[in-house]
Amino acid sequence: MKLSVVIITRNEAAVIARCLESVAWADETVVLDGSTDGTAEIARKCRARVEVSGDWPGFGPQKNRALALAGGDWILSLDADEWVTPELRAEIERALAAPGDKVAFRMPRLSSYCGRFMRHAGWWPDHVTRLFKRGQARFSEDRVHERLLVDGAVGTLKAPLMHEAIRSLEEALEKMNAYSSAGALAQLERGRRSSVAGAVWHGAWTFFRTYVLRAGFLDGREGFMLAVSNAEGAYYRYLKLTLLAEKQERGNRE
Question: pTM value?
């Protein structure tokens, strides 16, 4: 079975080499790039096939574009800040050799936040379905928090996919701002509305769920930092939704 690895990138020069080196054993690696840094050049040096994307339609649509470029019997979809361990590689190879009735496989993902691998706060085991037979799955069209839609049975691997989710507090703030904007726009397009009070409630609930219900406190300082970051993301997403809806309504009246 031929395996294609597909990766979408936007200014991932700091991490793309690690990702590509971890899957150098695959039959094909395709990078769909929309960067302004040196990501494409690094990817080519790692012997990946690089295709350039001129626009950014959101994570779901962009990942589906990347899928269309792959020629393998099976697809492994990765983010640039993820990497495959030798143990996971061995499991993937065994799964491809004898998939049985499975058309896709999920795997646990171990993610780090500001240098600490998180074992609580809803971040572990964080199963993600990333390995699938070509033609049997595609991503949802969501701008953020896209999902893989699988037509068939899904198996489970045991070895984790590694993920350096947040490298620094500065990156956490940048991602929170970008994701809250994209999330607010997606909710507006679905016809949803909010308010300042709703934004405050969602932020408070997200902190409580992350830090208390999902035991983020067991991850020490970083668990608290993550809970605050998640709460801010929820607060700003719903606040931005409120302001976008008001702007839309003013435009409709005019």
Answer: 0.92
